[in-house]
Protein: amino acid/amide ABC transporter ATP-binding protein 2, HAAT family
Amino acid sequence: MSAEDTVTEARAKRALDVSGVDSGYGEAQVLHDLNLHLERGEIVCLIGPNGAGKSTVLKTIFGLLKPWEGSVTLDGKDITGTDPEDLVRMGVGYVPQVDNVFGSLTIDENLRMGGVARSSGIEEVISELYERFPILRDKREAKARTLSGGQRQVLAFARALVMEPDVLLIDEPSAGLAPSIVEDVFEDVQTVNELGTAILMVEQNAREGLAISDRGYVLDQGSVAYEDDADDLLDNPEVSQLYLGGADYE
Structure:
């Protein structure tokens, strides 16, 4: 088997593979020759300074932005530039940082909206999600706008899970939350992962995000500056100094 065949086979076994991607907005390029991957069952955290292009990565994978160059594959299948509604049907979920629930709808209505593309089985899936996230079951008739920030984030996760995605893209799950709630939200991310969903997560709270992850990427100026196991990134003095706030952060 040639080296090229070996690489192709490895990519086919990955839940998600991003290769040589350039992307941006209008004429402004944000991502430069981006390469990253997500193995089945993993949590991978994408960290970096503001403006590094982290959210752009998720938007490009999810088809909200069309890559200028490069490719994105899902389980070895080319999904480059595929429309979001088609990606949802193919097993990719996305939880944006803002506007991730319908405030005027109840929890139950939000979950059903998350499953509009399902042809069957929605009752069973929603029932299982209520068992997994009892806070939603207990408030199922409450309007989403009445929920706390942490509860809204749980609802956003659950709504994305109604389609039973193999891959979930999460943008800044702890953004805007009180420190007392952040730990609970990260536990919910792990719960989602335990359901069998591989997660690519953008997180500004780098230490907390890496602490629950298998691997991590440090993005800087639209390119991968560092890639390693999450624990090794946390222990890397240069990464700590440049991106984690150094010793003063600890």
Remarks:
- The chain has one domain: 3-249.
- The longest strand covers residues 28-38.
- The CA atoms of residues 41 and 198 lie 5 Å apart.
- Residues 179-194 form the longest helix (16 residues).
